[in-house]
Specification:
single chain; Ribosomal Protein L22, Chain A; 2 domains; 3-stranded antiparallel sheet; 6 helices; 11 strands; about 35% helix
Length: about 220
């Protein structure tokens, strides 16, 4: 398994937009703010370049289908190849694996209503664990839980409604653990990521290999 870090605010390659399909260009055009449009184009173009490199295929010729939950699936993909993309702010993470994989990343930010959100989407045990954290660790704990749960449901292929069916450890000093997941907690393994200062992330993989590599992908 490999996790690739994509920096979305770097110099744009001249052919980024040209790599996108018609649907991706339509989605890019719907963004109101230029920074969001530019980051979307950079993320999708980088996704195509990385997948093209890994599979020795033309990045512009890659075609995607989407599940009813919006998860992209590469057409004509090898049976032992899966990927998942997540982005927050100016950073994206792309997870590549021979097994089912999900990834999520969040930029740390103040959340005055973190406990209210946790009570809605977290399990009672997760809420209790969050409340036990010292005040200065609670924000980190909240985003640990959110990214780990999101990575799990993306790997499973479920929607946000499955957040309540997932349960994870969340304390900053704990090794990530799957305590509950659709289909059984024992089928999944979690890894915590610190891809950049001010960000937390997680990757969930089915029957994961023991090694995770975090690299930065730069286009020069």
């Amino acid at each position: 398994m490999r996790v690739v870090r994509l920096l979305l605010d770097g110099p744009a390659a001249a052919d980024d937009f040209d790599l996108l399909c018609a649907l991706e260009r339509e989605r890019a055009a719907r963004f109101v703010f230029e920074i969001h449009r530019r980051r979307f184009v950079a993320a999708r173009a980088s996704l195509r370049r990385v997948l093209g490199h890994c599979l020795d295929r033309d990045p512009a010729g890659l075609a995607f289908d989407y599940t009813d939950r919006g998860r992209p699936i590469l057409r004509a993909s090898p049976p032992d190849f899966d990927f998942n993309l997540a982005h927050s702010g100016d950073l994206a993470l792309l997870a590549l694996s021979s097994r089912r994989v999900g990834v999520d990343v969040e930029q740390l930010r103040d959340m005055a209503n973190a406990l209210a959100i946790a009570r809605r989407f977290f399990s009672p045990r997760e809420v209790a664990a969050l409340k036990r954290l010292p005040e200065d660790e609670r924000r980190h704990g909240f985003f640990n839980a959110w990214t780990r749960k999101e990575a799990l449901i993306k790997a499973v292929g479920a929607g946000l409604g499955a957040l309540e069916q997932t349960e994870v450890s969340l304390a900053p000093d704990e090794v990530p653990a799957v305590l509950g997941a659709p289909g059984g907690a024992e089928a999944w393994q979690l890894f915590a990521l610190e891809p950049s200062p001010g960000f937390v992330g997680a990757v969930a993989v089915q029957a994961a290999p023991p090694l995770v590599r975090l690299t930065t992908w730069c286009w020069l």
